[in-house]
Amino acid sequence: MDCCNNATERPDLIILGGGSAAFSAALKAEELGAEAVIINDGLPMGGTCVNVGCVPSKTLIRAADALHKTKRNPFNGIGLTGKITDFKAMIAQKKELVEGLRQAKYLDVIKDSPNITLMEGHGIFVDSNTVSVNGKNLQAGRVIIATGSSPHIPPIHGLENSGHLTSQTLFELEELPESLIVLGGRVIALECAQMFARFGTKVTILQRSSRILPTETEDVSRELAKHIESEGIRIVTDVRIESVKREDSGVKISALVGGAPESFSAEHLLTALGRRPNSDGIGLENAGVKTAGDGSLLVDEELRTTSDGIYGAGDVTGEPMYVYTAAYEGKLAAENALGGSSNKRDYTALPWVIFTDPQIAGV
Hints:
Helices cover about 30% and strands about 25% of the residues. The chain is α/β, with parallel strands linked by helices. Strand 9, helix 5 (about 185-200) and strand 10 form a beta-alpha-beta unit. Helix 3 (about 55-70) crosses helix 5 (about 185-200).
């Protein structure tokens, strides 16, 4: 303890963030016999996946699938009926699952560890090896930035004040929307659009490019669009949003579709236009850590940033943004930071999947 330096503590490793990358890094640090401090702010411990991503979305996708199968049955002579009797109860079940997994898979795992300390608060770099949190300074020879990512909100006129939803707020609705406009035509947009359409919401997808899933081959995009549209979802492509306006009945969007003006209205609007690394507001400039134009940390193959002793892991380093790549990078960063290793990340074989119906996967 240093009385002249604002009660400075000196762990072996400081980890900014509380998601899969941060958690994996902390466990690897403990395995290496190091003392690690996790500084978490924003989402609860567990980050995007368990709180607002994989767990809630896939839970509700399965619920929507169960309802859908009662309405679309390929066998003759079998009549099934299904309906939502209590949407709020379904959301409560989702919340219970999230809270249980967060406790069991994250908090309970580290609660008795003498070498892992969890601090809730906003960490800011004072310099390259000092982080300030809750009025206290922590110094370490090694720091891992694993602050994750957040939904990307584009600068569309009126969007900020429209009460729009993101993937982090959509799953908190306790009343099923009658109608929903989805901005975007990639993974999150498509999974959420099909899910809510199967619950009974009238869904319209507005996609900027000429087809959904523009990074996949045309035959894959075309086949998935056919299945999605067969379930009553409207897909509109070549859309440029001009403005968004909140009205008493919901949200109104003014757009150009193929260059021609058109308007769209719905009770709710979901913005699903990708994710942006959480690199703002943590004092990177004080530590000499540089970022790319999209806000992602500039890291090398060993996950070192532009500042000696500081590493990056997970979504904050940019693509690929998957929970399993985040956990992999967190472990790798800790090994390189504390173990003197020079392991390079290897994505020669990287699997991915989109949980629509039909699902799409690749490697």
